[in-house]
Amino acid sequence: MTMTAGAIRRFLAIGTVIPMSLTLAMCVLVSPAMAQEESVKPGVNKKYENPNIQKMTKSLESENRQIFKHRKEIMALLNLKPGMDVADVGAGTGFFSRMMAKDVGPDGTVYAVELARNFVENLRRIATEKSLSNLKPVQCDEKSTKLPAESVDLVFPAPKSDLNFQD
């Protein structure tokens, strides 16, 4: 199946990429009581607590995934510039984080935010091996990204699953 530029734009327009100003506005609108509510799906992240890195890399970075096939178009539509600070929330194996780190260059920062401790450790290893000093893995929890307020120009949340793009 072919993903056109229009399909990618619709995908990104429905909230895959969230500018920091919108993220902050959403945070202000959420009441403190709502922020403390329990998840409607307790344990939803349980399967990601100790993922098998090798297995997840093979799955998430497979050439058979639509996201993999169209990674260059997705990255182009992010319109990253040198010096930008970006949060890749749910970074997993760092598939997008690595590309983002190259795009924002040494004056920018990519915060690879991840819940699973072994993903975070793997991201640190990758950043060192690939000399990506601007790739900063961040251990989050289910309630916070652990990033300071107003610390990024763009938030890129991980897609729930591989998407089927069509016009």
Task: Tell me what the structure shows.
- With about 170 residues, the chain is an alpha/beta fold.
- It has a domain of about 100 residues: 3-Layer(aba) Sandwich (Rossmann fold), CATH 3.40.50.150.
- About 40% of the residues lie in helices and about 15% in strands.
- A 5-stranded mixed sheet has the order 1-5-2-3-4.
- Strand 2, helix 7 and strand 3 form a beta-alpha-beta unit.
- Helix 1 packs across helix 6.
- The chain is globular.
What amount of the residues lies in strands?
5-15%
- The CATH superfamily of the domain at 50-144 and 152-158 is identified as Vaccinia Virus protein VP39
Instruction: Determine Rg (CA atoms, Å).
Output: 16 Å
Please provide the ordered H/E string of secondary-structure elements. Answer: HEHHHHHEHEHEE
Count, helices: 8
Whole-number average pLDDT? 77
Oligomerization: single chain
Main beta-sheet annotation: 5 strands, mixed
**What is the annotated CATH architecture of the domain at 50-144 and 152-158?**
3-Layer(aba) Sandwich
Which sequence of strands runs across the widest sheet? Answer: 1-5-2-3-4
Shape summary:
globular
CATH classification class of the domain at 50-144 and 152-158: Alpha Beta
Could you say which structural class the secondary elements and strand pairing correspond to? alpha/beta
End-to-end separation: 10 Å
Tell me roughly what share of residues is in helical segments: 40-55%
What's the count of strands? Answer: 5
Sum up the structure in keywords.
8 helices, alpha/beta, 5-stranded mixed β-sheet, about 170 residues, Rossmann fold, about 15% strand, globular, disordered C terminus
